[in-house]
Amino acid sequence: MSVIEMAGLRKEFTVRVKAGRLRRTKRTVTAVDGIDLRVQRGEMLGYIGPNGAGKSTTLKMLTGVLTPSAGEVRVCGLRPVPDRTRLALRIGVVFGQRSQLWWDLPLRDSFDLLRHVYRVPAAEHAARLRRCRDLLDLDGFLDVPVRQLSLGQRMRGELTAALLHGPEVLFLDEPTIGLDVVSRQAVRDFLAELGRAGDTTLVLTTHDLADIERLCHRLVVIDHGRVVHDGTIAELHRRYGSRRLVVAELDAALAEAPAPPGAPLVGVEADGRRLVYALESAGVAEVVSALAGLAALRDISIEEPRIEDVVTRLYRAPVPEARAGG
Ligand SMILES: Nc1ncnc2c1ncn2[C@@H]1O[C@H](COP(=O)(O)OP(=O)(O)OP(=O)(O)O)[C@@H](O)[C@H]1O
């Protein structure tokens, strides 16, 4: 069953731009340009794209903050803007830049207030809070006013605040931005656990592709407000011809690097003592046997295709033409 449905979703902004020394004219910016997507219950969707691609605008339309210019959008069967109050009970939102906590109150009191705002039965609230306290390690700072929390502590508090009413869908905009490795890991582990439980649908936008690799089976890439990829990360690699690399460390540089068929040489580093081959049709054994006898091999390692590389290529690719009527 789809918990999120978008059909021909568009958002245009009218902006005033300078046209000469004193004159200003109006210009239309199309932030979201006809998006069609369905997200099933329990899916963990990575929603990525370069700066200005339209990610936040989409999330704002899904959460009822912005009214679409055209198209249809339903979340949990509701229309986000007109049904905003009912929708608020069924979704959770974590926007990295905005807080839903009370700045001067200790975290514990913010959580208590939210219980009243959402009218959550005490036992349910206590059980969810207990789970978040354990998984996100909140106990050390539950009694600290929010304004005194570090970014990582606050983000763990924000995640808890977004989940205490038991939302069906959780929208996360850059949840790990600015966090240190330990906090980032804690947040990722927590979200992975949430995903495993299977009853919360998660929509995640981030520029940290490790978040996506760790958490999301499905990846939607948008550019200029349009979907340019919708599928798994493995499909993305296949579509853009990502290759595994073999890195050979040699004792000494060779006068000429061998060229095994099916494994082109793509890098010569460390003054020729490190050769990097891309595995196309050849396997590691072919590369090793091409080098054997020519050089003393100190080490051989395999590098899996990196999502950053393929996404960089995708962001640089020309954007497809708008569909007729889109
Ligand atoms: N309130 C607004 N008024 C005018 N233009 C806007 C407004 N909000 C967004 N835009 C424009 O819409 C486009 C999409 O912006 P959006 O914030 O959705 O991108 P994004 O993918 O979230 O980018 P980022 O990764 O930088 O956060 C951009 O060109 C942006 O300048």
TrEMBL record:
<keyword id="KW-0813">Transport</keyword>
<dbReference type="InterPro" id="IPR003593">
    <property type="entry name" value="AAA+_ATPase"/>
</dbReference>
<keyword id="KW-0067">ATP-binding</keyword>
<dbReference type="InterPro" id="IPR027417">
    <property type="entry name" value="P-loop_NTPase"/>
</dbReference>
<dbReference type="GO" id="GO:0046677">
    <property type="term" value="P:response to antibiotic"/>
</dbReference>
<dbReference type="GO" id="GO:0005524">
    <property type="term" value="F:ATP binding"/>
</dbReference>
<dbReference type="InterPro" id="IPR003439">
    <property type="entry name" value="ABC_transporter-like_ATP-bd"/>
</dbReference>
<dbReference type="InterPro" id="IPR050763">
    <property type="entry name" value="ABC_transporter_ATP-binding"/>
</dbReference>
<feature type="domain" description="ABC transporter">
    <location>
        <begin position="17"/>
        <end position="249"/>
    </location>
</feature>
<dbReference type="GO" id="GO:0016887">
    <property type="term" value="F:ATP hydrolysis activity"/>
</dbReference>
<keyword id="KW-0547">Nucleotide-binding</keyword>
<dbReference type="Pfam" id="PF00005">
    <property type="entry name" value="ABC_tran"/>
</dbReference>
<protein>
    <submittedName>
        <fullName>ABC-2 type transport system ATP-binding protein</fullName>
    </submittedName>
</protein>
<keyword id="KW-0046">Antibiotic resistance</keyword>
<dbReference type="GO" id="GO:0005886">
    <property type="term" value="C:plasma membrane"/>
</dbReference>
